[in-house]
Design a protein that fits this description.
Structural class: mainly alpha
Low-confidence stretches: 1-5, 576-581
CATH architecture of the largest domain: Up-down Bundle
CATH topology of the largest domain: Cytochrome C Oxidase, Chain A
Number of helices: 19
Number of domains: 3
Strand order of the largest sheet: 1-2
Number of strands: 4
Strand content: under 5%
Mean pLDDT: 92
Distance between the termini: 32 Å
Length: about 575
């Protein structure tokens, strides 16, 4: 490695406070596993309560709820709903897709030795960890953690007990972590690409992460400002979101002023709708790379795929009002939000048909990574189609705040993001750790996850159309919902199966770290720089010599070579400097 040889480092500086992007990416990956375990446990508690309302929670019920005889209390149920959404969005999906894959892949796929700002990169992880600890600390203060929903609408979030303060502080800290990472990503991708690696030779994963980082830079400061304002309302007597005449338990609220609760909704959704694309665009990039690799075909319509990512991000910033159709907004404004929301279906459809075009006529290899990538596409289509219903104002008036919405968001963010995360882990695990995960158990995990996922969340659409509201703890107390209770039980049993199946994935992951098959440098015979130009796992500094790029990343089954792959950095005398893209 010459001047880039790894210097002597202590264990702490090498593996704890590391500045190596690969170690930081793996830190995000492993910590997100812990967050996923906790977020999944919260989901299991929610589903237990909905299937078997006010019955004792098995094993841990009497330890958690001694006062109520081991059953979930109504107050704690609201906390479960709030913290499940918070953990899964802010501490699982975004850290997996943006923190883990972004950190590990960006320098490797663009031919750089590290991130532009290694110290800032280290800090982005060490802001994420305390943010999660602060959020969890809310469970141990008076009144438990926040209980105003993951959206934390005022005035409820203003008058909640102390746990709401911990929620707000954790969101401010994790937002700072995201901003640090986004600054690093944009700077690195724009300024540190290898010679010959023009923007239209970038892998789709890098394009997706670049646009995602720009979205983070645009949207996150808005949520940060809103969080500070809400924290001031709670602790300093301001009234940004507290209206005049607010009455709590029959008594006028002491700090009621001329604030606007709807202002919080505007600020929150201005971040949180782009956040949906922060959680799905990297998944689209990962799926694109994997589908092309295992179809052994060039990605169909590379430039339209790039433009569609840009269009999705741009439109995603101007549609936040579709979350507020019931707020009494001007119908003309509502029509504007409805139209712009429906327009997002167009670039999303472009990507879907381009994935199908890539598959058409390909030599498809059904690896664990490929199966999960295909599941991502199919589940994202279902989630996207259900989203069109909600884009229509008159339909949304009925299904707003019902389980139809819950089904939609889980098809997009579990069926979409989590299947893509599984695909990415199976695909890049050999590069990260030098060993491959077990393919048999990978496929068993995929099949069971796919079955139990659909058994859980497809039912939500039926419940929502039947009128079941979000966040209620007991549907049986409503006469008109009692006939739907068997579907609640079915969804819960499926969710318990979904949770248990992840044990297979965790065992496969950690056993493969030590006993997995040794991986070749280019384990999948792929074209991108991390496979073609580095060993598995890559050393400090990544590359012996920074590679020169001669073509795009998807030159599979090229007539120019006898193999069915043609790495970006392989120079062919007759085609030097040329490429499809």
């Amino acid at each position: 490695m010459g001047s880039h040889a790894e210097r002597k480092q202590s264990f702490i500086s090498k593996y704890v406070f590391s500045k190596d992007h690969k170690v930081i990416g793996i830190q995000f990956l492993l910590t997100s596993f812990v967050s996923l375990l906790i977020g999944g446990a919260l989901a299991m508690a929610i589903r237990w309560q909905l299937a078997y309302p006010w019955q004792e929670v098995p094993i841990i019920g009497k330890w958690l709820f001694p006062e109520s005889g081991g059953t979930v209390t109504p107050e704690f149920y609201a906390t479960l709903v709030t913290m499940h959404g918070t953990v899964m969005i802010f501490f699982v999906i975004i850290p997996f897709l943006v923190g883990a894959f972004g950190n590990f892949l960006i320098p490797l796929q663009i031919g750089a030795r590290d991130m532009a700002f290694p110290t800032l990169n280290m800090l982005s992880y060490w802001f994420y960890v305390p943010a999660f600890i602060v959020a969890m600390t809310g469970f141990f203060v008076e009144g438990n953690a926040a209980a105003a929903g993951w959206t934390s609408y005022p005035p409820l979030s203003v008058i909640n007990p102390q746990g709401q303060d911990f929620w707000l502080i954790s969101i401010l800290i994790v937002g700072s972590s995201s901003l640090m990472g986004a600054v690093n990503y944009v700077t690195t991708i724009v300024n540190m690409r290898a010679p010959g690696l023009g923007f239209f030779r970038l892998p789709m994963t890098i394009w997706a992460l670049l646009i995602t980082a720009i979205l983070i830079l645009i949207a996150t400061p808005v949520l940060t400002a809103a969080g500070i304002m809400l924290l001031f309302d709670r602790t300093m007597g301001t009234c940004f979101f507290i209206p005049k005449g607010l009455v709590i338990s029959g008594e006028p609220y002491a700090h009621a002023g001329g604030g606007q609760p709807l202002l919080w909704q505007h600020l929150f959704w201005f971040y949180s709708h782009p956040a949906v694309y922060i959680m799905i665009l990297p998944a689209m990039g990962i799926a694109s790379d994997i589908i092309s690799t295992f179809s052994r075909k060039p990605l169909f319509g590379y430039r339209p795929m790039v433009y569609s990512i840009c269009a999705i991000a741009g439109l995603g910033c101007i549609v936040w009002g579709h979350h507020m159709f019931q707020s009494g907004m001007n119908p003309v404004l509502g029509m504007t939000f409805m139209t712009s929301t429906m327009l997002i279906a167009l670039p999303s459809a472009i990507k879907t048909f381009n994935w199908l075009g890539t598959l058409w006529g390909g030599k498809i290899h059904f690896t664990s990574a490929m199966c999960n990538a295909l599941a991502f596409v199919s589940m994202f289509v279902i989630g996207g189609l259900s989203g069109i219903f909600m884009a229509a104002t008159n339909v949304d008036i009925y299904i707003h705040d019902t389980y139809f919405i819950v089904g939609h968001i889980h098809y997009v963010l579990f069926g979409g993001s989590m299947f893509a995360i599984f695909a990415g882990i199976y695909y890049w695990f050999p590069k990260m750790f030098g060993r491959a995960m077990n393919e048999f158990w990978g496929k068993v995990h995929f099949v069971l996850t796919f079955i139990f996922f659909n058994g859980t969340f497809f039912v939500f659409h039926i419940l929502g159309v039947g009128g079941m509201m979000r966040r209620i703890a007991d549907a049986t107390q409503y006469t008109y919902l009692q006939h739907l209770q068997p579907l609640n039980v079915f969804a819960s049993i499926s969710s318990f199966g979904l949770g248990l199946v992840q044990v297979i994935f965790v065992l496969n992951f950690f056993s493969s770290l030590f006993f997995g098959k040794r991986a070749e440098a280019n384990h999948w015979k792929a074209n991108t720089l991390e496979w073609a130009d580095t060993p598995s796992p890559p050393p400090h500094g990544n590359f012996d010599v920074i590679p020169t790029v001669y073509r795009g990343p998807y030159e599979y089954s090229s007539p120019l070579v006898k193999e069915d792959w043609l790495p970006q950095s392989r120079k062919l005398a007759e085609t030097a400097g040329a490429g499809r893209h």
